Amino acid sequence: MGSERVSKPILVVGAGFAGSTYARELAEHGFSVDVIDRRPHIGGNAYDEVAPSGVRIHKYGPHLFHTNNEEVVLWLTRFGAFVPYQHKVQAELADGSCVPLPINRRTINAVFGTSLKDEDEVRAFLAKQAVPIATPGNAAEYLYANIGKTLTELFFRR
After folding, report:
1. Given 19, 48, 93, 139, which residue has the most CB atoms within 10 angstroms?
2. Within a domain: residue 112?
3. pTM summary value
């Protein structure tokens, strides 16, 4: 691609990360670019919607952007700011309450109605829940042997 420019527009199919980036770079280098996508928005699978509650919803499933390349960060921040991120995964129980995942002390206290105060109490409690299986033969047996049937069935067998 020397210094001459193509007289016909370039068509980029797909407005996800790759398509949007190529289209922008080509346009900034003087090319006429059209972008089409089957969806009514840009961003591809990384598209988010904000619910009326203000919670950001990942329409197509979770997505996180990671880079340690400062040039990429500088390029992206020309178009907007990054949204601060806190990773909080919760599971909804049958009664509608939510508990943290991965399983932690708060999860155990909520599920079993206990008030375990520290790691030692949690270990002792889980030891009582555990099913004695000397050599687990699969993932379910491993979980039964470490966290017991109740937590395994509740979070991994639904």
Report:
1. 19
2. yes
3. 0.52
Q: Are residues 72 and 95 in the same domain?
A: no
pLDDT grade, residue 124 (50/70/90)? very high
d(CA 38, CA 3): 33
How many angstroms separate the CA atoms of 103 and 101, rounded?
5
Q: Do 35 and 19 meet the contact criterion of CB atoms below 8 Å apart? A: yes
Same domain, yes or no: 104 and 67 = no
In which domain, by residue range, is 46 found? 10-76
Residue type, 39: R
Q: Is beta strand 89-92 parallel, antiparallel or unpaired with respect to 98-101?
A: antiparallel
pLDDT (tens digit per residue) in 47-57:
988 888 888 88
